Amino acid sequence: MSILSKMLKNKQKKRQDDNYRQKQDPQKPEDSPILRDYQENISHLKEEVGNSSDVKVREFKIGAHKGALVYVDGLANMISVADYILETLMEAEVPDETIDIFQFMLDKTMALGSVETITNWNQVFDTVFSGDTVIFLQGYNKAISGETKGWEKRAVSEPSTQLSIRGPKDAFTETLRTNTALIRRRIKSPNLRVDAMKIGIVSQTDIAIMYIKGIANEKIVGEVKERLERINIDSIQGSGYIEQLIEDQSWTTFPTTYHSERPDVVTSHLLEGRVAIVVDGTPFTVTVPALFIQFFQAPDDYYSRFDISTGIRMLRILSFLIAVIGPSVYIAATTFHQEMIPTTMAIAIASQRENVPFPAFVEALIMEVTFEILREAGLRLPRAVGQAVSIVGALVIGQAAVQAGFVSPVMVIVVSITAIANFSTPVFAMAIAARLIRFVLMGLATMLGFYGIMLGLMFMTIHLCSLRSFGIPYMMPLAPFNIHNQQDAFVRFPFWAMKNRPMFISKGNMKRSGENQKPGPPKQTENPSQKGEEE
Amino acid sequence: MKKWVKVILLIGLSVPILTACWNQKELTDLAFVMALGIDKGEDDLYHVSFQLVNPGNVSSGQNGGGQGLPIAVYKSTGRTMTEAARNATKKVSRRLYYAHTNVVVISEEVARERTQFLNLLDSFARDPEFRTTTEILIARGASAEEIVTTLTILDKLPVSKITKEIKSTEAMLGENFSITIDDLIDGIVGSGKEPVLNGYQLIGMKEEANKAVNLQKTTTDAFLAADGLAVFKDGALIDWIESKKSRGVLWVLDKAKSTSITLKWKGKKNALVFAPIRSKTKVSTILKHGKPVINIKIENEGWLSEANTAIDLIDPKTIGKIEKLTEKAIKKEVQISVKEAKRLKCDIFGFGDVVHKENPDLWKKLERDWNNYFADLEVNVKVDSYLRREGVRTNPFWSDINK
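YS: structure for the whole thing
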């Protein structure tokens, strides 16, 4: 615990020295109050936004009072504007010309869920560009903003990258509100906090920081907020921007933040005490702190029984290892340690390699690079052409290369196994890390054999142990070893044995479940009357 | 940053110190030596035959295999093993690689001469590539070269034929057993046990053995077969224990697992066959009138694999009788082997080691002249056999014929 608080304190000290809070869009106009004359307000607005065709101004009269409403075409819902503002406004009967018409409008004519009074121009731009409607009235140095947000948005659909067999089929969309609602719908607790923030000087992207008060570690929540506030960038186009700007360590291939497009995953992370960062405009929500082992936990681990999920999780860790060392073991075994291969297999490999013109490393490199190119091409190509790539790839890699004698069939097997193993990592960010390390290890294996592989793996381990995610050691339940957190590391304990939330990440409310949760057959009750019935 | 420089320097500097066996060598630059055959020439040099594998002809993959011969044998001579191996490089295009050498065949001539035989062994034990678990054989009635050049039909690689064959004989018959270079050296060094080695014969038309024609017949003209155990004393071959007598040796050495024991029943020869499935031998010693006495206790259980006579196998008494007969038969086999060893004055059973372990003081006195002492040693054999099963039939059909 002391390590964590020390880490956080050190970070905080550093932060106080920076004067990072000076983040101002140089092009943004100085904030100024709204004027009394609505005509002047309108002309000021037009001056600011130029001739932007999507900013609509509609003048109106209510009783004897003149005014104008402003909204952005496409962001505001036209039906809301017409039915709940304009219609009520026009049909309203003003009882007395002397009443406060501003208050009257707020009270009687805005048939909307959320109505606010705003007083300066920054607020005007914020609300208008978020899809709200702003109403200026003659003679008032304030304006009414009514919520009319309603732009075209993608419906909640099935997740496209993180699939599950038994899990829920909904996924986040690009709309912040939809995403927070998907989470809120799963945690109906008043302790679920949704703190709003805007990041990006120009883009003013909405961000929601979600956590469960009482479960999340307040220090981490504070740290997250502080790191987010520190961000001084023109725009945020996706959660990847945020991730890279709040990481503990940039010089690593391993992801130290977790992202998911599945609300069930984010919800369970929240319940473990993690903090979620929902970013508007992207279906990927970031959760922190993220630990190494977390990237091998798939949602299905929790939906299927513990024995099965434990086995499958082991398989995933094994396949990660294969993805990392597969080709390098092949290189090392065939060029340094031929004695390690069983005799018949050594001869079989030797016979296949007999006519291959390249040394093992070059052969492996050709195949690996070809495969990476194919994968990248398959990812980028328009869907209609995509199939062509797989056909060409299968032919080139699988058959033609072997028949031409450029590569040995064993190499094809090694590359295929490595590639398939790589796909079984549930989170892409971790899978891609393995891809990079693989090439480094291949080089080491060529120069030093198994010694080189071990050297590389040792470096990798040392590096992994040195990583931190929001002050939490990255290899957490393994190094430093923590017996309590083993319940969801390599082995997924049954739920009745998974009593605690992960230490350090969660603070305060550590208990997950009550005692005696283990199910069993009905208890034998000694009821003589029942016995009698049976007889 | 400074730390990293130090770490990288440290690793870089440790590279030259840690040189063990990591000179890089591509698979295609290696010649896998599968077997070595060592003969004695008239010039007092070792005549070494290197059986190299021709990988392309062994595996049947897409690249097509099996057209040519799976092995090629190169010969070379030298005063020592290393010299012979280095001389061979003049003839072989690739680097000779010994890590997959499975069999070393030594001719009887070489094995009978103490210094020549012993001079070979250190090179096998010292070379880091060479495995001390390599099978070592004595060529019997043929030169080592002939054994090494013979082609085999079922296993493409003759060495895998030899190693597999010895293992299956050990498991199913119990006349030969796997003996490695390690075992041999242990036996030569220790004074309480003398080593034995498997003999190997080339049966049939020797001149056809190394030709591809040999593989095109269902009954090959020449084939390899294990035959007898070579007995070594003072580091040289002195005599052979023939196949029939060698089973007793395996019983005593606790190597026999399964075999077949043919029994006589009520005057009918070859009436019953008992097949042990597991067996355990314990050798112990006691002092009797100041002299060590060896007690051999063999316990085995098995099943009745044949009953060629009318016999009532339902009766437990019959089973008891069969067990008794088996015990007698095994006891006889062991006694024959012990007698044979005594005749050679050569303790191949390791009785000396047993005495050494149980009575070190006495051993000190006996150690020097143990083999002579062994010739007059009292050896008691006790066998306990258990017939557990009769296969899938109880009474044989013979019981019904005579009714």
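YS: worth flagging: The CA atoms of residues 378 and 387 of chain A lie 8 Å apart.
IM: good catch. Also Residues 16-22, 531-535 of chain A have pLDDT under 50 and may be disordered.
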